[in-house]
Design a protein that fits this description.
Blueprint: E1 3-7, E2 11-14, H1 31-38, E3 56-61, H2 71-77, E4 87-89, E5 99-102
Bound molecules: FE2/S2 (inorganic) cluster.
Length: 129
């Protein structure tokens, strides 16, 4: 089961491929999708469409466990503030194994506090819309 750790909140999420409920933003099983499932706040101003850089994350471990970067992601990332050699767009990279990523503080309004699960915006169950 792939394991994703989000820093600095130090929230670790394990999931089974094909079992993660899709949160309708970014590629299924992308870092953004996993963050939304876990209640970790990862900005996604364009809705996960590779059209902004607010979901920029820095991969600390496990670069090779993320899907290859395609040209769209690479072009978009070029515009990201604080670009590093380990930068990715959270909505575009699909998790295939264990990774540790850091959400840079300029992209971070807050992260899940006190162990509570907070999921901004996507919290309305389908039946209650
Ligand atoms: S959310 Fe906009 S590029 Fe990822």
């Amino acid at each position: 089961m792939p394991k994703v750790t989000f820093l600095p909140a130090n929230v670790t999420v394990e999931f089974e491929h094909g079992e993660l409920p899709y949160k309708e933003h970014g590629k299924p099983e992308s870092l953004l999708d996993i963050a939304l499932n876990a209640g970790v706040q990862l900005e996604h101003a364009c809705g996960g469409n590779c059209a902004c850089t607010t979901c920029h994350v820095i991969v600390k471990q496990g670069d090779g466990n993320l899907s290859e970067m395609d040209d769209d992601e690479a072009d978009r990332l070029d515009m990201a503030a604080g670009l590093t050699l380990h930068s990715r767009l959270g909505c575009q990279c699909v998790v295939q194994g264990d990774v540790v990523v850091e959400i840079p503080d300029w992209n971070r309004n807050y992260v899940s506090e006190g162990g509570g699960s907070i999921n901004l915006g996507e919290a309305i169950p389908a039946g209650r819309r």
